[in-house]
Structure to design on (285 residues):
């Protein structure tokens, strides 16, 4: 599936316009995929954190953020709709300082409702229990440290195919012209079972299969070859090892699905870690 113009998205424009009236109309916002890596990036100062910060220096201040995180998988599609989402510490075995981090960004029931209205592929459930998991707050806190921009999360339906997620994501396009920054947060290459823990501090270290998969992914991204990225399981053994489970990979498809024809794509934080992970991040627009 190559990059094609987004047209004919069925939606209730009147309802959508009413809900998003407070956002106003803006130039089309860029879209980001962030390789979030270890939760420790939330409290460390390193090149990846600097990359997260730098990524928003040339982006207009968002009215709100919609984040699709690898760490919220549900049956069906949900969006957080509470006014004050909690900070979720969804990990174990880390230093006390990481569990003490609180990112008190407000939510946006208006954006949640607008997201529900704009998606026609499935019935979106408004959720009042989740919050912000570390796939969202560990990166967004570096981009917007004042926690004064509303953040809404959208879940990944674990029952669905990559093609389904890509097609659903395309329906989010109209939010880009309402000042909404859409972020996918995961990792393109993510195989925790094969991490070389003794190489954690070795710069840009990847196994041969991880580097091969990463190089092919980046080539497909730069060439607008979304079909090969959607059908990643058909790309051989390196991809099988790079994406043993889909949850960290799918947020990339949410970002790429929103690419319009002739929109510029750039990569940053483009390094491997510990053999079987990559921090590669993508900006569109």
């Amino acid at each position: 599936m190559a990059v094609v113009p987004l047209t004919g998205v069925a939606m209730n424009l009147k309802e959508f316009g009413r809900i998003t009236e407070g956002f106003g109309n803006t130039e089309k916002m860029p879209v980001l995929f962030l390789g979030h890596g270890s939760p420790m990036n939330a409290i460390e100062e390193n090149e990846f954190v600097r990359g997260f910060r730098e990524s928003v220096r040339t982006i207009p201040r968002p009215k709100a953020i919609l984040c699709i995180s690898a760490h919220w998988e549900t049956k069906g599609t949900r969006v957080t709709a509470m006014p004050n989402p909690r900070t979720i510490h969804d990990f174990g075995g880390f230093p006390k300082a990481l569990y003490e981090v609180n990112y008190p960004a407000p939510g946006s029931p208006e954006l949640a409702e607008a997201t529900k209205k704009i998606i026609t592929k499935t019935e979106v459930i408004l959720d009042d229990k989740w919050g912000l998991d570390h796939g969202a707050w560990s990166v967004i806190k570096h981009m917007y440290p004042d926690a004064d921009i509303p953040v809404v999360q959208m879940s990944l339906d674990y029952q669905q195919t990559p093609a389904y997620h890509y097609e659903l994501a395309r329906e989010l396009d109209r939010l880009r012209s309402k000042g909404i920054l859409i972020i996918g947060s995961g990792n393109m290459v993510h195989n925790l079972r094969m991490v070389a823990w003794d190489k954690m501090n070795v710069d840009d270290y990847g196994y041969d299969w991880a580097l091969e998969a990463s190089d092919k992914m980046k080539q497909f991204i730069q060439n607008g070859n979304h079909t090969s990225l959607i059908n990643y399981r058909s790309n051989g053994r390196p991809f099988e090892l790079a994406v043993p489970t889909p949850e960290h990979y799918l947020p990339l498809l949410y970002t790429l699905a929103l690419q319009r024809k002739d929109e510029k794509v750039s990569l940053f934080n483009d390094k491997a870690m510990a053999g079987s992970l990559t921090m590669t991040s993508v900006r569109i627009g």
Residues 13-190+246-271 form a domain with the Protocatechuate 4,5-dioxygenase; Chain B fold (CATH 3.40.830.10). The longest strand covers residues 64-74. The chain has a mean pLDDT of 94. DSSP finds ten helices and ten strands in the chain.
